[in-house]
Design brief:
It is built from no helices and 14 strands. The chain is mostly beta strands. It has one domain. About 25% of the residues are buried.
């Protein structure tokens, strides 16, 4: 898995090809903007020149010590989740915890090949998840 976009699907963050989604009521690729210490998601304009307005535009992670939960989008704080403390370290999106930069992003497989759920592995994760680096830049297209 390399260079795949993050997308919004019913307030949960996914990685992969959005066209592989079935039966989604609200899904869109997103761009992130760092505002203070919050990552705000903006829907990427579709081919029909309409932009989906997201119900929950701020990325949040469960920072409980043993958490391995989906990164979600929210407008208010869910218990155990944090939507502040994000920073850019170069192009990487990291979280600042007690003065320490952390990057504990993992991707968990779904039932659909090419789609993963983006999670924050506060507990270090398991061997079933793939470690990922979340960036604020699109990957460079390779040419043959």
């Amino acid at each position: 898995m390399t260079g795949l976009p993050v997308f919004y699907n019913d307030a949960v963050a996914y990685i992969g090809n959005i066209s592989l989604l079935a039966n989604s009521t609200k899904a869109t690729n997103v761009n992130f903007t760092l505002s203070g210490e919050e990552l705000t998601a903006t829907a990427i304009q579709s081919s029909q020149n309409t932009t989906l307005v997201l119900d929950s535009p701020t990325l949040a992670i469960d920072v409980s010590s043993d958490a391995l939960d989906s990164a979600i989008f929210e407008t208010s704080t869910t218990s155990g989740y944090s939507h502040s403390g994000f920073l850019y370290y170069g192009a990487q999106i990291v979280w600042l915890a007690s003065g320490v930069l952390e990057s504990k992003w993992v991707a968990e497989t779904t039932d659909t090949d090419g789609l993963w759920v983006l999670k924050w592995a506060a507990n270090g994760g398991t061997e079933d998840e793939l470690l990922v680096v979340l960036k604020n830049l699109a990957p460079v297209a390779l040419t043959a």
